Every structure is written in C-alpha cells, then in structure tokens.
Amino acid sequence: MIASFKQDISYGLRLLLKDKSFTVIALITLVLCIGANTAIFSVVENILLRPLPYEDSDRIVTLYNLYPKAVAGDRGSTSGPDFAERRALKDVFEELASYQGRNLNLGLEGAPERLSGLAFTPSMFSVLRVKAHRGRTFLEEEAQLGQEKKVMLCYSLWRDTYNKDESILGKDIRINGEPFTVVGILPESFRFGNRDREAKLVIPLAFRPDQLGTDSRHSNQFQQLARLKDGVSVEQARDAVGRLNAANTEAFPQYRDVLINAGFHTVVRPWQDDIVRDIRPALWMLQGGVLLVLIIGCVNIANLLLSRTNTRMKELSVRNAIGAGKFRISQQLVTESVLLGIMGGGLGLLAGAWGLTAMNALGLSQLPRGGEIGMNDSVLLLNVGIALVCGLGFGILPVINLCRENLNEFLRDDSRTGTAGRRSNWIRSSLVVLQVTLACGLLCGAGLLVYSFMKVLRADVGFKSENVITTSFSMPRSRYKESDQRIQFVQNALERVRAIPGVEVVGATDVLPMSGSNTSNVHTYEGQQLLKDENPPVPHSSTVDYNFFQALGIPLIQGRQFEPTDVKDSQQVVVVDQTFAKRWFPGKNPLGIRLRQGVPGFDDLAENPKPVIFYSIIGVVGDIKRLDPAENDPDGNVYYVLPQDQELTSTWTLTLKLNGIKAESVMASIRDEFQKLDPEMPLFETRTMADRLSEAMIERRAPMLLLILFSCVALLLAAVGIYGLLAYTVSQRVREIGIRMALGASRHEVLKMILRYGLTLAAIGLAIGLGMAAAFSHFVQSQLYQISALDFRIYLLVGGTLGLVALLACLIPALRATRIDPNVALRCQ
After folding, report:
1. pLDDT at 122 over 90
2. Which of 49, 253, 680, 789 has the most CB atoms within 10 Å of its CB?
3. Which of 385-395 are b and which e, b meaning 16 or more Cβ less than 10 Å from the residue's Cβ?
4. Pairwise pLDDT comparison (778 vs 800), residue with the higher score
C-alpha cells in the first residue's frame, strides 16, 4: 500500500511537471482562491471567532442603558449609581466594573506627550482576571477622591519610553500636570476591547459625589463590564438587571413617566459580540464572497481535470487492460488532484500572508480588534483543510466519469479515442453554468455595495472639508479648575492662532464632527407641555466659538450666527440646525423661542436642582453629519457659544481653514504658540477634515474594495471556464466541423453554432444567478445606503457585463472553429 502510494506520488508529480500549461493555470487559480480565503479567514477568525484574550472571556458581558423611543442609536453607557447598585447583584455577577476612555497628558522632559488611556474601577482587574506584570494593580481605596493619583503603565509605554526600567515602580510621573505614582506594569498581552492599540496608561476611576447621587441616575458617562457567576446565563443577568431597574423606577416615581415613555431598559450582552457588532455583517459577507470565489476556482479546475482525463482515456484503458483495475487508476487520479491541492495550498498560504500585509493599506488595523489580526494555528489548519478538500473535490469528478466508462471501448481503432461522451459534456456544461451563477451572485453583491458607497461619498455632510485641518488640546483640571479659566485659555489660544500667516479662519468646538464622539442632552422649550407617551427632543449639543460655522462652511439658513458680542453677561443664546427647527417647530418661526436643558417638573424634583437657564434661538444653520456620512441625526443639533457655557469641558478642537499654505508649517507655528501659553500642554489628533471623513467610512470602504477585487477574480474565472469548455469542445469536434463544412456549412454557420452553445450556457447561469441574488437580497440590505437590494440597474449592469465577458470568451474558440480546413480535419481523423 505504501509502495503504491509513493509510486502514485512520483508518477503524479512527473505528469504535473510534464503538462506545464495545465499545472500553471491550475496553480494560479488555486493560489488566488486559497490565498484570498486564507487572508479573509485570518481577519474573520481574529476579529469575530477568536475569544478575547482573557480567562473565560465568554463570561464577560457589557451593560449599557438605552432610551430607544427618545434617543436614536443602539449603543449607550451607564451612570455612577448603576455601578454601585448592579455590583451588589452578587447572585448574578462575580464582579462588575466601570471604565472610561481618557486622553492623558504625560509630562516628559522638554516634550509633553498626549496619550490614550483608560480609567478603571479597581474591580476591573477581577472582571478581566488580569494581574500585573510588575508591581500591583489598584486597591479598592484608590478609587476614592484624594487617593486616586496612581497609574499603571501599559507594557509598550514601559518598554519604549522607560526602557523597561523596573525602578520606575514607586516613582511619580506627571499626568495632566499632577504627580501620579506608578504602582504597576500591565502584561505585554494586555488588550482591552477596540482601544488596545492606543491605551498606554491606566488610572483609577474615582467617582465624584455628584456622580453617585440620585440626580445622576441617568447621567450616563461610563462603560460597564461584568463577569457572570458560574451557571448564570446572559438572559438571567438581563432579567436581574431589569428587575433592579423596575424597583428603582418605583422608588423614584418622579422619573417613572419619562423613563417609560423613553423605553428605558438595560442591554446585557457578551462583550465580544458588542465589540464587533458593527463590522460583523460586512466580514461575514466578505467571507461568503471569497468562499464563492474558491468554489468557482475549484469548478474551473474540475472542468480542466475532466477534459484532461478524457484526453488520457486511451492511456488509462491500456493500464486497465494490463491489470490495473478502476480502483487503482482512480487512486492515481485522486493522488494527482490532491498533490495539486497541496501545492496550491502551500503557495496560497504565502499569498494569504502577503494579502494580509497588502490589506493593511485599506485600514484593517483600524477595525475593532484590528491590531490582533495575523496568521495563527487556526488559519494554518484551515489552509491545510482547504487544500485537501479542494484536491479531493475537484478530483472526484474525473473519477466518477471514469467509473461510468467502459474502458475497453477506447482500445478499438474506431472508438472515441479520447473523445468525451455525452455524459462528460453534460457534466462540463453544468460546471460552467455553476461558475456563471456564482460569479453573477457575487457581482450583484459587489455592485450593490459600490453603488451604495458612491451614494455615501455623495452624501452631503453639511460642512466643507477642503483646506481644513484640526488639532485638539486638553486643559488639565488640576491647573484649570474653574470654567472661567478654561474659557480664557481657549480664547487666548484662538487669538494667537488667528494671527498666524496663512490661517484664513479659526474656529473651536468641544465636539468635532467625524471625531467619533458626541454629546446628547434632553432639551425642552419654554411653555412646552409633554403629552402622554411623548418624549422631549434629545439633540446633539456642542459648544463652539463664533467662527466655528465659518471655518467649516456650515451655511446660515435663518437669523444670525454667533458674534463676538455674545459674551457671558449678555443674553443667553443658541443656534439650532434645520432638523431640530423643522421637527420641533413645524410651520413656525423658531427665532426667539427659548430652550432649556432638562425636562420641566423632572429636574426640579432632583435632590439638588440646578438653576434653570433659558437660551434664546438666534439662528438656524444647515444640518451636519456628526458620526457617519450615511446616518442622519433625527433630533438635530443645538449649538452653545463658548463664553456662555456654564461648565466648559477641558478638551477642545481647533478647526483651521487655510489659505494656500502647507499644514506642516502652520502646525509648527501653532505648537510654538501653545508652548508659550502652557509648556505642558501637547497638541494631539492633528489631521485634516478630509482624513477624518475617510476614517469615518473605513468599515464600509475596506470590505467593499475587497469584495470588488474578489468579484473581478470570479468574473475572470468564469470567463476562463467558458473559454476552456468551448476550446476543448472545438478541439474534440474538429472532424464533425470538417464534415459539416465539407457538406456545405458556411463559416458563419459554424460561428453561430459554437457561439450559441457557449452563450446558452452563460444565459442559463446568468438567469439562475440573478434569481438567486434577488432571493437572497435581504441579507445585504442592512449594508446599503439609500438604495434597494433589488435595484434593477445593478442587476442589468451585472447581466450586461457578464454577457459581454461571456461573448468575448466564446468568440475566440468560435473564430478558431471557422478556420478549420475540412480536408485537413478529415485526413487527421
């Protein structure tokens, strides 16, 4: 058995090396198909399938509050009171923790650096079951104000900035202008959700008293994770939190009606599912696309092998006549195909590794868990499995065909001698139809995504990104404790930057469009009475300076924009956008209407009610897209002016419209001015608005471009399949065509005969493919923007493209058939 197996391998290799054209075509097909599947599965496996890098990570869940009838969106956060109350559910949660993403200024000698960090409650290390690489994690008492000035360094910062100096433990480093004691180093393997590539520092999360009071019960600012107890399911945890929410609603009846009207509830879901929720459909669609490419490629090779086996029938018949049975011959044929599959798999693995590197240019590293993408054992096993399955898959058809043939007939002089029987022709034709069907479905999906993406690119985001650069800064609360101090610093910075040559307009905002962050607050207007089951508006809100609208080219629709005279002691004013004005004041003039944050009768019942401040609407500006060019804000936007903000935030972004000058020279001047204002304040997130727009579309663009690439490969393989079938058919029908022409058939009639055969197969495959694409269209509808998954224009375009490619693939063998010389054809046969 072993001897025969070695013999089959040796003989198979000799045949593959001898038939170089077949081997090269088959290997190129396999490398493309297996390489694509290897690369895409690496992405899918690392992002969607591989568990998070924590012990028993399937038991880690995330919790967040939603108000779907009042606030748009499917992702929220939690409050300080939620942490204390839910942590007490010891029969459900082994441990529960809250966290926030933080941007922190690290004071380094001569060059302060802005770093991304995290603020954890000490319980987070129990939730994640993470231990310190050096030193220790946070103690419970270090989550108290006054004791929270501790820090843990992520391994990369410890390595790159402090050269793995263990003496850093116990020393102070300056963070946001204050000394923090280094208590530990996190492990090199530490990863945290989709911030793992950025987080460099971890500090304790210490709640302020006002963040834990009843007034902050629905002031959601924190993310929450919990580890389920053994035997507790996600559904049981969700029910327990739901009962707690219901009890709180009864305990604070002043909130009941508003919460019921808003549809308040808490989502409890596996953390890993939450991290990849937005990218999962696109990745599975992409994996399905490359799987179709693999099937098309295998069908193509199966057709080639079937044709190759038919030309070897005389040889196989001789081997059968001298004692080799059909089983022995079949073993040889399968060995040849498996060898081909293994060779293709090995080269495909290299192609997949190269493909991963190339795909990084599309921004894969920016996807959730994108920093973890790479080859691993699962990918290698899949590659081996694909190679073996492909080798067996496309090798089985020649074996089936062989077993159905009477090999003795091929030894007769008047036999078919290598001519395929009717059954073989039917199998090859069916395979071509399958190729066209699959290619059609893949092209329809890619076409819909391309058209949708074009719609997104043409979507009006409401502002101008040309020649606009942005840069951010953050004022440490330790040195800018009062709102007036922060206001004065921002105004001083704006004044200095406006004086830089080449800067046409400078604006500022605390929430920049396309930055990935937003703030929404409940607003009501003076005299508004909420009806039963009615929710107040919850627009995006931001604070801007008077030049912000001009810097981004946001048009004024009605009234006026902010002016330098809108200062703290003047009339309190706001500007709203068209969506807000039309939704809440339909058919009315919104100018002069006064707004307030909060709900009358709701905030007034708080333990420590804040003074009610009304802001008069002075203008209406155009709508903008804040988070995604393809998403509208149903409640619109409300803008406050910088000097009038009562609690000005610490982090701000400048928006600079340049006048024919390079951004690099401007940024150097801005850094110099900020060094004069505060030597410990670094600038960060410096980029153009065009880049921000591009990054906002990464989750749409990367899968679409890859699917287009694989669709083109599928189209090429389908064309090769049609061409190969017809070329083989013509070569096998030389005598028949010669007889027809000798009997009077014209070259035009021969051309029509071959074209009719090929185009009929293409038309059948096209009809089935379009029908299947329409039947499964609902699976891609969620990925489309402003188009239907049944858009007939895409189906017509795909049909026309495939038809044209099929015609070109048929034309070459058909023209070759018309050049057959009847005399030569009859003599050769």
Report:
1. yes
2. 789
3. ebbeebbebbb
4. 800
Q: How far apart are CA 564 and CA 344, in angstroms?
A: 69
736-772 pLDDT, tens digit per residue, is 777 777 777 788 888 888 888 888 988 999 999 899 8
Task: Report the candidate in 541, 529, 631, 534 with the shortest Cα–Cα distance to residue 70.
Answer: 534
Provide the pLDDT confidence category of residue 577 given band limits of 50, 70 and 90. Answer: very high
CA atoms within 13 A on the CB side of 471: 22
pLDDT at 828 over 60: no
Label residue 124 by pLDDT band (50, 70, 90).
Answer: very high
Cα torsion 82, 83, 89, 94: sign: positive
In this prediction the pTM is 0.78
Average pLDDT for 304-309? 76
Q: Which two tokens stand for residue 158?
A: 């410890």
> How many helical (H) and strand (E) elements, i.e. helices and strands, does the chain have?
24, 21
Residues 472, 684 contacting (CB under 8 angstroms): yes
pLDDT exceeds 80 at position 617: yes
CA–CA dist 44, 492 (Å, integer): 49
When pLDDT is cut at 50, 70 and 90, the band that residue 416 belongs to is very low
DSSP letters, 351-389, are HHHHHHHHHGGGTGGGSTTGGG----HHHHHHHHHHHHH
The residue type at 92? V
Token couple for 152: 């843990």
Residue 335 carries which side chain, given as an amino acid letter?
T
Give the model's pLDDT for residue 152: 95
Q: Amino acid letter at 82?
A: D
DSSP annotation of 175: E
H helix intervals, 173-279: 209-212, 234-251, 256-262, 271-275
Counting residues of the chain whose pLDDT is more than 70, the rounded percentage is 88
Query: What 3-state class would DSSP assign to 828?
Result: helix
CA dist., res. 178 & res. 203, Å (int): 13
508 in Cβ contact with 545 (< 8 Å): yes
Q: Taking the CB of residue 724, how many other CB atoms lie within 10 A of it?
A: 19
Is 637 in a helix, a strand, or coil?
A: strand
How far is residue 127's CA from residue 129's CA, in Å, rounded to a whole number?
Answer: 6
How many CB atoms neighbour CB 422 within 10 A?
Answer: 7
The whole-number average pLDDT for the span 774-779 is 83
Write the Ramachandran bin of 383: left for phi over 0, alpha for psi from -120 to 50, otherwise beta: alpha
Q: How far is CA 349 from the centre of its chain?
A: 24
**Which tokens hold the place of 249?**
């609603």
Amino acid at 59: R
Q: Check: CB of residue 829 under 8 Å from CB of residue 739.
A: no
Name which of 684, 240, 166, 789 is nearest 473 in CA terms.
684
258, two tokens: 């508003």
End-to-end Cα, the chain, rounded Å: 41
Q: Are strands 60-66 and 265-270 parallel, antiparallel or unpaired?
A: antiparallel
Q: How do residues 782-792 score in pLDDT, each as one tens digit?
A: 778 888 888 88
Give the whole-angstrom CA distance, residue 789 versus residue 446: 11
Within 13 A of 78's CA, how many CA atoms are on the CB side?
27
Q: Tell me, what DSSP letter sits at residue 614?
A: -
Rounded CA-CA distance 610/615 in Å is: 15
Q: What local confidence, expressed as pLDDT, does residue 470 receive?
A: 92
Contacts (Cβ under 8 Å, ≥6 apart) of 198: 116
Rounded Cα distance between 65 and 519, Å, is 15
Return left, alpha or beta for 193; rule: phi > 0 is left, psi -120 to 50 is alpha, else beta: left
Four-residue CA torsion sign, 739, 740, 743, 748 = negative
DSSP string, 497-561: HHTSTTEEEEEEESS-TTSS---B--EEETT--PPTT------EEEEE-TTHHHHHTPPEEEE--
User: Do 416 and 317 form a contact (C-beta atoms < 8 A)?
Assistant: no
